[in-house]
Amino acid sequence: TASGTGPSDAALRERAARVIPGGMYGHLNAALHGPTYPQFFVRGEGCRQWDADGREYIDLMCSWGPIVLGHRHPKVEEAAARQLAQGDCLNGPGPVMVELAELLVDLVPSADWAMFSKNGTDATTQALMVARAATGRTKVLKAHGAYHGADPWCTPSPAGTTPNERADLIEFTYNDLASAEEAAARADGDVAAIIVTPFKHDAFEDQELADPEFVRGVRALADRIGAALVIDDVRAGFRLDLRGSWERYGVRPDLTAWSKAMGNGYAIAAVTGTDALRDAATTLYSTGSFWFSAVAMAAAKATIETLRDEDGIAAMEHAGRLLRDGLEEQARAHGFTVRQTGPVQIPWLSFEGDTTLEKGMYFSAACLRHGVYLHPWHNWFLSAAHTEKDIKQALEGTDRAFAETRAHFGAG
Ligand code: PMP
What we know:
Elements: H1 7-19, E1 41-45, E2 48-51, E3 56-59, H2 74-86, H3 95-107, E4 113-117, H4 120-135, E5 139-143, H5 163-166, E6 169-172, H6 177-186, E7 191-196, H7 212-225, E8 228-232, E9 255-258, E10 269-273, H8 278-283, H9 294-309, H10 312-333, E11 338-341, E12 348-351, H11 358-369, E13 372-373, H12 388-409
Parallel strand pairs: 3-13, 5-6, 5-7, 7-8, 8-9
Antiparallel strand pairs: 1-2, 2-3, 4-10, 9-10, 11-12
Helix pairs in contact: 2-9, 3-9, 6-7, 10-12, 11-12
The structure holds 4'-deoxy-4'-aminopyridoxal-5'-phosphate.
């Protein structure tokens, strides 16, 4: 059996290896997280998940983002169940599609319309199609290392893609306005869009908040060259600011890609955009068999309304602040220097000088043993279901994990 996983997980892995390529693929492939991470999960409730062997974890990954109110949130489940009783996948969308679009247009100042799909990649790809349809141009500027999805144009692995599929991307360095200007100059007037995440959340690296000058600068650059500014809010959306993640900077995008947290785990994504791009959006042929299913839309409506009415973002910030302060104090007490980066509700912790991630891997595996599920090289996610009591319990686990990491690596 894979070391550290229980017998049920091991048995499922063995069967999976026969019928699923590599036993698992994509970002939820447990082999990527560490040898002791369980692969299969059977239940989630609030801020907890249970693996196939019944082990319980305080969930600091929230399924890599989708779970924003906690697993099986009653208001979301009730809305989804009510819709499911009427039907999900019909000959046309339900009235809930209009209600959800109205809700987004009402909440998001840069949104005059919304289109829906299923995954973040659908939304980023569709946003670029709108930008290209509107401008008649080809190239897209993106930050080096930024993840925008797994279609051939953006997947981080070249396997199965052709150079042509990436030929229209020009890269700049996040938070470096001069490099974005330079990337634009290289495109020689042919830029359809600048796509950018609200902060730098690349895997394997400390996170970086956006420099306000960079934020205002890319907006001005897009305006100057007549390109659409696309915010990829797939990861941060509905966790930082319901109005959109750059609203706090006073900067509005032309298009925004949303997904992940939008339906508290139900499969849904959206592109929102401004009136100036409405006609271009109208011209696309962009669709999918399941894009109009009503259950996920009902779940999204309930998720967003609950976040709004109960100030879910403040709850996540409060939990995130407690976690960050607690971890800082524990690290110091155990003689570690750590870096905690990103917004407190989308946090990450790295050990100073741990370039091989050896300490980070050891620490996260130790957390797992003590019932805390977090990640060694990808940012974590908090939800509105994380109470002070839950964070306190998580911190008991991380304290023991720091102690074991100290014992393993020794002082100094
Ligand atoms: N953009 C960003 C910023 C993301 O974090 C992700 C998912 N990690 C995507 C796009 C792609 O979303 P999906 O996996 O739902 O296609």
